[in-house]
Amino acid sequence: MTAAPAARNHWTDARCAKAFWSQQEVRPYRRLLADTVALAAPAAGEAWLDLGCGGGPLTRALWDHTGGTVGAVVGVDCAAANADAYARLRAELSAGDRVRFRHHDFSSGLAPFPDSSFDHAVSGLSISYAEHLDPVSGRWTDAAYDRVLHEVYRVLRPGGRFVFSVNVPEPAWWKVGLLSLGDVFRAGRPLRFLRRSLRMMRYGGWLKREARAGRFHYLPAAAVAGKLEEAGFRRVFHRRSYAGQAFIFSAVKPSDEG
Fold it and tell me: Would you put residue 94 in left (φ > 0), alpha (ψ -120 to 50) or beta?
């Protein structure tokens, strides 16, 4: 019997990574970023994990929100191209080792990090893409999604918050695109902006197809909340953002006192 060919993972491609950098320039994403950081409420001296960090917009937002007094932010992403973005970010912020990038696919867990190594964690539209193909049945499962939540719980210190966004089921990308139309004229390099935006829309089609096949996970809010509670999190809260196409969740790892 011939083994099925490995599924293509565009997330590791430099072209895909750079296409998604352009979303930082559109109003729906900037609203999502602001809403996420408001819930995260970073403070001076804290150590943060930025999971599925991309080019570092959340890392920069954590830094800016604290006026550069955040203790440390470690960005983790499966796309090696994001290391260049983090190098530029570190230089712009004069952050030194307080801003770091780790090339790692979180679908396999967070083994590079010991227990209780971060005060808090954030993630922007990323954990839905944790993937696991069952070797026996040959079917995609949500095992990696569940593992990510358990692993984030493990690496947080007691009392730590996990604030993250995920897309709603069957996201209507056109709503995001419609609200972003005016941004092309405000972009410093509009042709590059348009090219990246069109490429991002094509990747969006791939993501929806794979989600329907069970590879990626655009789940109802109640399902995400249930998974968080099963992983041990409490005080689970969510709201919508990103032109209504994303949920932002906040959940807390209980303190030693419960």
Answer: left
Q: How far, in Å, CA of 66 to CA of 70, rounded?
A: 6
CB 47 within 8 Å of CB 71: yes
Structure tokens at 208: 């929806």
Helices (H) and strands (E) in the chain, counts: 9, 9
Closest CA to 166 of 199, 207, 127: 127
By C-alpha distance, which of 166, 159, 179 is closest to 246? 166
Q: Which residue has the tokens 């966004």?
A: 165
Q: For 126-154, how does the pLDDT look when each residue is reduced to its tens digit (9 = 90+)?
A: 999 999 999 999 999 999 999 999 999 99
**DSSP tag of 72:** E
Q: Spell out the domains of the chain, with CATH numbers in brackets.
A: 31-170+217-252 (3.40.50.150)
What residue ranges in the chain does DSSP mark as E strands? 47-51, 72-77, 99-103, 120-124, 132-133, 140-141, 161-167, 234-241, 246-252
Neighbours of 134 (CB within 10 A): 10
Q: Looking at the predicted structure, is the pLDDT value of residue 14 above 60?
A: no
% of the chain with per-residue pLDDT over 90: 67
